[in-house]
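User: I'm writing a tutorial on reading structure tokens. Could you give me a worked example: one chain, its sequence, then its tokens, then a sentence or two explaining what the tokens reveal?
Assistant: Sure. Here is the example chain.
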Amino acid sequence: MTAPAALADAPLLRAARGLPAWRVPVWFMRQAGRSLPEYRALRGDGSILDAIGDPATSAEITLQPVRRYGVDAAILFSDIVVPAAAIGFGVDVVPGIGPVVTDPFRTKADLARLRPYEPAIDAPYVQDTVRLVVDELGATTPLIGFAGAPFTVASYLIEGRPSRTYGLTKAMMHAEPDLWRELLDRLADMAIASLLAQIDAGASAIQLFDSWAGALPPDVYEDLVMPASAKVFAAIEATGVPRIHFGVGTGELLTLMGDAGADVVGVDWRVPLDIARARVPGKAVQGNLDPAICLAPWPVVAERTRDVLLRNAGRPGHIFNLGHGVTPDLDPGILKAVVDLVHEEGRTDG
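And here are its predicted structure tokens:
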């Protein structure tokens, strides 16, 4: 196949639909940001929410990795807590910690603090950023929009900060299932509003990050989490844009995550790609080089990159990515070399 003449033929969008592409597409989660010196120079010491709120800055950060790496997609520079922060729930993103909530969600009365999210009123800068990026990317490189899945956003709102055990979250899930379901339903509506606004502004694929769903066993995920994620995917289906679903430590949940309605299931580094494919029949897959491997010398990184490609065995429907996000200590030169190798050697002939 030849290079795309229009956005619909971009390798990432073809792969997301399970179609052969002229090369294996590659992008990296968290590619826009911390490992790039040009990002650090532009961001300075200000809050990430301040940078997200400035469309010119956010657009430039979104575009930086496309220029440096030659990846097959940009992903919007934003954060999964932007909708909650924009409606005044009291969320900030603290450097070195992550999302921190001043007054965490505890009781039914806190539902009143989660009013409907209106993107054009509450966070117009997000759509403005999308438009700037899409205009710059032109007709051949897609922009991926994203939102936090209801469970993962709920875990931040309840715990008040990142957690290793999710004890408060799990306690509410099991002790107050009705309140839990209502909370997730509201967060699903916020995610839907956010994603539809991004798509309306020009995003041509979306990813739902359920980053911490791997903390749950399959039966609990299916009963108390999956319905809210399925609601998000169902609401996006009519737009026709590919839908990607990703979580960390979700090897035992992959089939369910695919059943929730995604077109593409993201795979972390713990499950070999060929085994993951068998767990999500009929779905495209995304992944799954271990980010930590990228700290090794290039021959090691190249070997592991080739292993991911070999496990896919040339089948259509593979988007190359890391098994989680780019970490601040990764060498941009190594990531560029990974992109070049995947583009040179990756095939999806069917």
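What the tokens reveal: The first strand starts at residue 74 and ends at 75. Residues 23 and 344 are 8 Å apart (CA to CA).
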